[in-house]
Amino acid sequence: MDLLVRWWGPEARAEVDLRVGGRYRLSMRLGWGDLVCVGTYREIVPPERLVFTFAWEGDPAGEETVVSLFLREVDGGTELILRHEGFAAPGVAENHRDGWMDCVGRLAALAPAL
């Protein structure tokens, strides 16, 4: 759990029931307040794949999307493919891409310590 909050974002907190059908709640503190996402785990296939729903808590649109993480060994490390799908508008997908790039950058920085 410690690693999850370290790569998720600033002043992150996590509640996780890591099983298919289990729920999660991740929050990070930003300058204007807390940003919280929630969802349900759909697939858990260690160490290859993790699929879960993703929604912003309190979002009036109530949009739920799906995140899929695929991992595979490559020479000298691990390749991560992240797909975040199901957005109603393309601009929203671009905003999420930027956020995921920040998260993946933090994860890459933590990887040598694993």
The global form is: globular
CATH overall fold name: Alpha-D-Glucose-1,6-Bisphosphate, Chain A, domain 4
Derived structural class: alpha+beta
Number of DSSP-assigned strands: 6
Number of helices: 2
Q: Architecture, CATH level 2? A: 2-Layer Sandwich
Strand order of the largest sheet: 1-2-3-4-5-6
Rg calc = 14 Å
The topology string of helices and strands comes to HEEEEEEH
State the low-pLDDT regions, or none. Answer: none
What percent of residues adopt helix (DSSP H or I)? Answer: 10-25%
Q: Main beta sheet, described? A: 6 strands, antiparallel
The protein's oligomeric status is single chain
- In total, how many domains does the architecture comprise? 1
Head-to-tail CA distance between termini = 13 Å
CATH superfamily: START domain
Protein name: Activator of Hsp90 ATPase homologue 1/2-like C-terminal domain-containing protein
Domain Activator of Hsp90 ATPase homologue 1/2-like C-terminal: 3-110
Pfam families: AHSA1
Family: Belongs to the AHA1 family.
